[in-house]
Amino acid sequence: MSPRGNRGTDGRDTMAADTPALDTRSDRVRLRDLLYGFTRTQTLHTAVRLGLPDLLAGGPLPAADLAARAGADPDALVRLLRGLAAMGVVAEEDDGRHALTPFGEGLLPTAEGSLHGLASLVGAEYHAAWGRLPDAARDGRPGFDLAFERPLFDYLGAHPEAYDRFNRWMAAATRTTAAAVVEAYDFSPFARVVDVGGGYGALLTAVLRAFPGPAGVLFDLAAVVAAAGPHLEASGVAGRCEVVGGDFFAAVPEGGNAYLLS
């Protein structure tokens, strides 16, 4: 058998006629675009950290005004806006003002299925961690441990702002799937539902709001659940939810009838 397929009686590769020829030019362009993917990630991250989607939510702005409001260098911001325009996140209007596109509205924190949290998360720390992937592949240790000489959650525990960004993204990501979870599974038979590693309680909140019977236990690291109160209050489930701090690698709260892991 040929590496490319079966050979016919005349010795020719019978699969060759059925296999499209490699379009080397387009494939190299696609591969190059993949290699430059990190630049797009950092451009989107920077836009969110500067608050550009929020600043443009009220309408188009000239680049100079946008730079002043964002606290950015005007020339650098123009280059950043060009990159965002190339991705379809913003558009430059005929009068030179820049507008947020419908595509770019996904970076607003209030948008349905918002990716604001993810964009704010994937900055310098995660870029550095992925930069250690060759070393991680060789010795098996996580790239984050190699980049910062400590595990991810130890680092986050020592950097509250980074931890808040992490938990806000986890909450946003969970909200996109929570509706499907409560629709697919009946939690009404359970008296006590424990959300293990529940962050700010997005999934547990969805369960408690959909099923009035169970009480909830939100369990995560103490530094995380200490900030969960306002989220539970805003969702109207704080009165039915106990907040417990701890390390789920060591132990989890006892007495639950159902345990959530997500």
Automatic annotation (TrEMBL):
Q: Name one GO molecular function term.
A: O-methyltransferase activity
Q: Per its UniProt record, what InterPro entries does this chain match?
A: COMT-like, COMT_C, COMT_dimerisation, SAM-dependent_MTases_sf, WH-like_DNA-bd_sf, WH_DNA-bd_sf
Q: Does the keyword Transferase apply?
A: yes
Going by the UniProt record, its keywords in alphabetical order are: Methyltransferase, S-adenosyl-L-methionine, Transferase
Pfam families with a match to the protein in the record: Dimerisation, Methyltransf_2
User: Residue ranges of region Disordered?
Assistant: 1-23
UniProt-listed PROSITE patterns: SAM_OMT_II
The segment(s) forming the O-methyltransferase C-terminal domain are 130-261
**Domain named O-methyltransferase dimerisation: residues:** 33-108
GO terms classed as biological process: methylation
Q: What is this protein called?
A: O-methyltransferase domain-containing protein
Taxonomic placement = Bacteria, Pseudomonadati, Thermomicrobiota, Thermomicrobia, Thermomicrobiales
